[in-house]
Specification:
The structure is a homodimer of 357-residue chains. Chain A is of the alpha/beta class and 357 residues long. Chain A has two domains: 11-185 and 249-271 and 339-355, Dihydroxyacetone kinase, domain 1 (Rossmann fold), CATH 3.40.50.10440; 188-244 and 274-335, Hypothetical Protein Tm841, Chain: A,domain 3 (2-Layer Sandwich). In chain A, 29% of the residues lie in helices and 27% in strands. Chain A has helices spanning 11-22, 84-94, 108-123, 153-167, 171-184, 232-244, 294-307, 338-345; strands at residues 27-30, 35-38, 48-55, 72-78, 100-105, 128-133, 185-191, 211-214, 225-228, 249-257, 262-270, 278-285, 311-318, 328-335, 348-349, 354-355. In chain A, helix 6 crosses helix 7. The longest helix of chain A is centred in the first third of the chain and has 16 residues, at 108-123. Chain A is globular, with a radius of gyration of 19 Å. The mean pLDDT of chain A is 97. The interface between A and B is large, with 60 and 60 residues.
Chain lengths: 357, 357
């Protein structure tokens, strides 16, 4: 295993120590339980946003904490859900009196633990709502998930909802906005290579030298199809058309109903993309691909969107939701409107994303 | 070869097409000869900064073009020097009447071609000065270089000199500043894995599963020593101490003397680091290492600098001068003073680096 690490069991702890030393003006780190939080938290009167999940997807989520994005992030061990006590303690640290929104990627462990944490926080008198991100069009269920997985749209939701929180949206309005981003965003990824979880010490899966995996998950979960290597243009077409031609998608998710004080089933339907839509195009590096390759994917994506009548009005290109050193990419398209555009353009200052500050 | 590309010979062209489509507000791209330039070039009355070199080191240099950094960048094919006509045409496009500064990494091909380009530009009436970056402490000469190679300090010089140009420094003062950054910056890199140049189709060098290369160049040139894998802390110590304990370094470089109208030999001496110095610490991802690993390197670097009496006053962590998908890292330390600090903090808006805008 070739990695710039010391003991595999210390990877996350030492990463967090490094972040705390490097960026004291942006984040602080609490250890045991582990969470990253805004250096100026709690921000009085602002709804606090918290996300989290397994480590290994950096900069998501700890690198997305700061002005205009998250107030707190709970990192689990690599590819392992964080625990409810991390989420509870993070909420207690960052809530500024206006409630807490949990942004949760749809993985079984994350969902279960954030639900427990929300209940515990409520029992301690903190208003909490929780919104699920399930934007991966690749597979309906997977080894790690009931329903679609939460991937690239999470980064976009954290940016947009973070800007809205900064602007003064209340908790209910932020939850509605986060749900809106989720249903309007769709993603699909692919892997040229596997990645190696430090504690495992060997590649998560085997991928022969002449094969790739289309629709792979961010933990290396199997995707739609394993096939022989294709060109960047062919790969982009497969990913983009899977997203653009994905029909309306209905599912039932559990959300916390504040008035009833309980978790209720909510049916959501993702509207399909249609000609004339304005979109944000996000080309994500899975981590290990050379930076020179991403614009080649974007170039073809731009052409496909044009052909399909989708107008790219904003973009994001780079490693934002990674899978350790996996080579490959994912594409996310998010249908935009004036509200989302204004929030996307708002200032942000985090470790992994900054502009306007 | 596993890459997100189409034909190997089209990699750079298609990358540039992608950049042009994605970032029209920041850069424009001229094809044949190829160069990237500021969308608002020429900026009247400002000295124009131009750099360049082989592709495969993204975001350097095309991704460092924009307000507060470069005015133009000339990309060669992957790991191949750009040609004098690229450098000449870029100069003609971006010069705003106050002269052009070429920032040149010390590789034989780059040096020769920038020298020819400077002579051609001068014969067309453009004032040009040219400063060499040679900050790699690993080896004195290498397969690609007479003298030390130019690496991480280049990124820092482009940021700092770019800010000074924006502020109105004249050509001579910018050349002096760039030379000052060069002699106060030192770097050293290491590789866990090789990388594959698309046109070659196979790894540049072989590195067994249990070995790494200390002092590697950004094109995979041999470094100081090949050895068995070490921990992140041990690696950091080797790189950092090589830099910090590097004695004064004297060499003669060729610079253009405007008054004499010819290239003259200039002797430069890098002052060694000493306790009490303020430094910028730059931990660079060679491209393919997982993002979670870099803060682990920074953590140890911070400890070593403290022990040595060096105060880290700024930092930069991430993939800025890459070697395609090579796994590994490099460390650069730059001795800072009030002038450099103010320029470092100044606004910048490029594809690869942005803050304050």
């Amino acid at each position: 295993m070739k990695k710039l690490i010391n003991k595999p069991e210390d990877v996350v702890k030492e990463e967090l120590e490094g972040l705390a030393l490097a960026y004291p003006d942006i984040v602080k780190v609490h250890f045991d339980p582990d969470y990253v939080y805004r250096a100026d938290a709690p921000v009085k009167g602002k709804v606090a946003l918290i996300s989290g999940g397994g480590s290994g997807h950096e900069p998501m989520h700890g690198g997305l904490v700061g002005l205009g994005m998250l107030d707190g992030a709970c990192p689990g061990q690599v590819f392992t859900s964080p625990t409810p006590d991390q989420m509870l303690e993070a909420a207690k640290m960052v809530h500024g009196g206006a409630g807490v929104l949990y942004i949760v990627k749809n993985y079984t462990g994350d969902v279960m633990n954030f639900e427990m944490a929300a209940d515990m926080a409520r029992s301690e008198g903190i208003r909490v709502l929780s919104i699920l991100i399930d934007d991966d069009t690749a597979v309906k269920d997977s080894t790690w998930t009931a329903g679609r997985r939460g991937v690239g749209t999470t980064v976009l939701a954290e940016k947009i909802v973070g800007a809205a929180a900064e602007k003064g949206y209340d908790l209910k309005k932020l939850a509605d906005l986060c749900r809106k981003v989720n249903i309007n965003g769709r993603s699909m990824g692919m892997a040229l290579t596997s990645c190696t979880v430090p504690m495992a010490g060997k590649p998560t899966f085997d991928l022969p030298e002449d094969e790739m995996e289309i629709g792979v998950g961010i933990h290396g979960e199997p995707g739609r199809e394993r096939m022989s290597l294709k060109t960047a243009d062919e790969i982009t077409e497969m990913l983009a058309l899977s997203i653009i031609d994905d029909p309306a998608y209905s599912r039932t998710v559990r959300e916390l109903d504040e008035e009833k004080g309980e978790w209720v089933d909510v049916t959501l339907e993702d509207p399909p993309f249609k000609a004339g839509d304005q979109v944000l195009a996000f080309v994500n590096n899975m981590g290990g691909s050379a930076a020179v390759e991403l614009p080649i994917i974007y170039r073809k994506l731009h052409e496909i969107c044009e052909k399909k009548g989708l107008k790219i009005v904003r973009n994001l290109i780079g490693p934002y939701i990674t899978s350790l050193e996996m080579q490959g990419c994912s594409i996310t398209l998010l249908k935009m409107d004036d509200e989302l555009l204004e929030l996307w353009d708002a200032p942000v200052k985090t470790i992994g994303m900054r502009w306007g500050i």
